[in-house]
Structure formats: structure tokens, C-alpha cells
Amino acid sequence: MKIAIIGLGYVGLPLGLQFARSGVEVLGLDIDSRKIDALNAGKSYIEHIPSESVREQVDAGRFSASTDFSRVKEVYGALIAVPTPLNKNREPDISYVLKSGEAIAPHIPKGLVVILESTTYPGTTDEELRAVLEKGSGLKAGEDFHLAYSPEREDPGNPDSRVHYIPKVVGGLTPACLAKAVELYSKGIKTIVPVSSCRAAEATKLLENIFRSVNIALVNELKQVYAAMGIDVWEVINAAKTKPFGFMPFYPGPGLGGHCIPIDPFYLTWKAREFGQTTKFIELAGEVNTEMPMYVVHQTVEALNSHKKSINGSRILILGLAYKPNVDDDRESPSYILLDLFKSRGGEMSYYDPHVPEIRPNREHPHWAGTKCVEWSRENISSYDVVIIATDHQRVNYAELGEWSPLIVDTRNAMGGIKTTPGKVWKA
Fold first, then answer.
1. pLDDT tens-digit series, residues 349-385
2. pLDDT in tens, 58-112
3. Residue 86 has what pLDDT?
4. Active-site residue among 177, 198, 260, 373?
5. Total number of domains in the chain
6. Which of 112, 150, 374, 419 has a 20 to 30 A CA-CA distance from 120?
7. Nearest to 289 by CA among 324, 255, 333
8. 236 is a domain residue
9. In a domain, 403, yes or no
10. Any idea what the Cα angle at residue 415 is, between residues 412 and 420, rounded to 5°?
């Protein structure tokens, strides 16, 4: 079997490599020629995917990459794994999905299995994508080619998260489409979970991410309530998670980041309006999580005031630019919002992140592109009026931070086990 993976980012690349390891010939397709050149040279551009993993499959002839989307005519199946962001009005932007469909449609051979993996609202696959594919190919989905949806389930930075062992939910346009999609995924994934339709599979992914968003909002709200009562929410969570049933721990932070949790719930909010429905939990959770960076600002104001300083004119270091620990993925990171908020108040801003040596161009915060990570040294760290821990990377020496920095605002409880002088560490 030979398949194409369209979109070679944090989802598409590990998926393609997993299929290649399983003996499937994989053609990676992407519009970014730099990615294509790197992959064909056996080099990875994603930190947690070692170049050796890419080189092994390239050398074995099981993985190659191209910008030529017409080559979809060579394959048995085409899996689309491209971004689905929100636009400036916080409405779904499925343009990358539709452009991918338009690019392959004229070249679709009869019998091709097309599967969308990008997170989106129910109806995207069997309405919008289907229409684009049928119009461009002159073929009919469910008869001339097969169409299905299977949500990506990636957990970057988690060493126990391996694509082969993550159960794969799959929904097809027709029973025959489902059967073909299941057959394809069975080549590389251990457990397949069929559902009744593309829409059921799309809704499954949204439920998974809405569940996280709502629960993170809950602990973010409780963090503020308990702080006002003089109670440490981290101590409470650690005690509560000893209950062996009926409780699952979620942890607060400075806001939400990543390609899923801050975005996907609003796909359902937008689609629900079409059916005259409201999504109160989703919208409230979004409101709470969106306000968290401002809570960090308020706590930092209090911390600096305790040292008779203000934000205006203070040297402020954001520790952690990636949205989660131990990865280089900075998409939708709340650290960018913190950088903007403090800078707008007169703060002199820098960042430290061992996984992000330089800020790459990004859609939401292009003005920070090219900014470089500062050096980790006693002389440098001690020169900042306050260090704000936004992401708790394991590669950071928090004992050194506690010794070197005059003031720390901790949003991740990273300093929980570190002894420091009284008043040096503030929770936020």
C-alpha cells in the first residue's frame, strides 16, 4: 500500500513516519519546500521527532516528500492533516482544508480513499470537503472515491504517547467508505474505533477537547478563589487526585495554548448557532481561560509592588515560550499574550526557553519574530526584576532560578519543591 499525507506538521509527520515504520510506502505532501528538502535529506524540523527517525524511513525507501500534489494519483489513500485555526473574528477557518481538497481533486483516481484528520465542526467532511473534491474531480464521493474522517490524536512531549497505540476513531460517508478507511488505518494503528458517520467522528474530537477546556477553566477559576482564601490550589489538586474514582486531575496555568484546546471548542459554538443552539459551558470556559494572562499580570503587579517597583521600567523575563512542557511547539502560547501585556505596560521584555532558541514567524504575534532566547547564567537571570514561569520545562534548573532570581511569579507550581527566601516566589 502507498498513501499520501497532506500537511507535514506536528500531526502529519509523526503519522506518516508511523505508517512507514509499519511497511506502508508514504508520500508526504506540503506547500513548504523547506520542509520537503529537509525531510528528503533525512532531517527533522520538529524537536521531539529525531532526525534519525526520518532518515531511517527515507533510506529504506518508505518515506519521501514532495510539493507536487498531482502525485496523489499514485496512492491508495490521501490523509489531510492541515491547520484549522480561527480567523480574526474567532470563526472557523477551514481554508487550508478546502485548498488541500482543491489541490488534489483534479488528480483523484477512482477508488482513492480520502480521509480528513484536521479538527473541525460536524459537517465539514461530508459537506464542504466533499463538494470541493466532487467539483474538482468530476467524481462522486461514496461511489467513485471513498471519503472518511478520523480525528488526529497527538500529544507532543509525552514520551508514552506513540501513534501506533493511540486508538483511532474513524467515520465514513458510507459503510464502504468506512471499511476502506479502517483497512487503511489498520496497516499502521493497533486499535480502530469505527463510528456511524463522519459527523460522529468530528463530534468525538470536539468532545475530547471541550472536556479539557471546561475542566482547565474550572481549576483556573478555583485557583483564584482559593488564593483569595489563602489556600494553595496545587495542594488541593494533589490531595484530590488520591481519590481512586470519580476524579481526574487538571492543572491551572497562565492561559491556554496549542493547536487544539484554545480553538476547537469554538468550532462547535459557531456550528451550534446554525441549529439555534447555545454552548454556555464552552463560552464560559473560554472566557475564564482567556482572562488568565491578565490574572498573571495582576499578581506580578503585586509581587513587584512588594519590592517597591512597577511594571513600567522593570526588566521582565518570561520563562517558557512553548505552550506545554518539553516541546518546541509555541502555537497559541499564552506566553505571547504575556509578552504583549507586559510590554504595553512599559515592561522591558525577554524570554528564556531551552526548546525555542529563536521566535519563528507566526500569524498572531509576528512582531516577536526573530527575538532570541536569553542566556541562562547567574549574571543574566539575576539582572531581571522578575521572572515569570509560564511553562515548566524539565530542562530548566529551578534550584538555580530560586537562588539567582530576586523575584519569581510561578504559574505552574514549578517552584513547589524548591526552598527559597520568604516572599521571593508568588503564585499566579
1. 999 999 999 999 888 899 999 999 999 999 999 999 9
2. 999 999 999 999 999 999 999 999 999 888 777 899 999 999 999 999 999 999 9
3. 85
4. 260
5. 2
6. 112
7. 255
8. no
9. yes
10. 150
The residue with cell 461530508 is 126
Q: Are residues 188 and 245 in the same domain?
A: no
Quote the cell numbers at residue 275. Answer: 441549529
403 and 277 within one domain: yes
Indicate whether 72 and 141 sit together in one domain.
yes
Question: Which pairing describes strands 146-149 and 168-172: parallel, antiparallel, or unpaired?
Answer: antiparallel
Confidence of residue 344 (pLDDT cuts 50, 70, 90): very high
CA angle 341/291/234 to nearest 5° reads 105
For residues 116 and 246, state if they share a domain: no
Instruction: Note down the domain range covering 377.
Output: 241-427
Indicate whether 290 belongs to any domain. Answer: yes
β-strand pairing of 168-172 with 192-195 = parallel
In a domain, 102, yes or no: yes
pLDDT bin (cut points 50, 70, 90) of residue 48 is confident
Determine the residue type at 19. F
pLDDT of 154 higher than 90: no
CB contact burial 320-355 (16+ within 10 A = b; e otherwise): bbbbbbbbbbbbbbbbbbbbbbbeebebebbbbbbb
What CATH number should be reported for the domain holding residue 416? 3.40.50.720
| Number of residues that this document lists for the chain | 428
Q: Which grid cell is 336?
A: 505571547
Residues 402 and 253 in one domain: yes
5 pairs with which residues across the strands?
28, 79
Residues 250 and 362 in one domain: yes
C-alpha to C-alpha distance for 74 and 56, rounded to whole angstroms? 23
Q: State pLDDT tens for residues 235-280.
A: 999 999 999 999 999 999 999 887 677 788 888 999 999 999 999 9
pTM of the predicted model, to two decimals?
0.92
DSSP 341: H
Dist CA 291 CA 217 (whole Å): 10
Closest to 194 measured CA to CA, from 171, 217, 163, 214: 171
Contact 212, 261 (CB under 8 A): yes
Distance CA 167, CA 193 (A): 7
- Confidence band of 160 (pLDDT split at 50, 70, 90): low
Same domain for 52 and 111, yes or no, is: yes
Same domain, yes or no: 296 and 351: yes
The letter for the amino acid at 141 is: A
Active site residue 260: yes
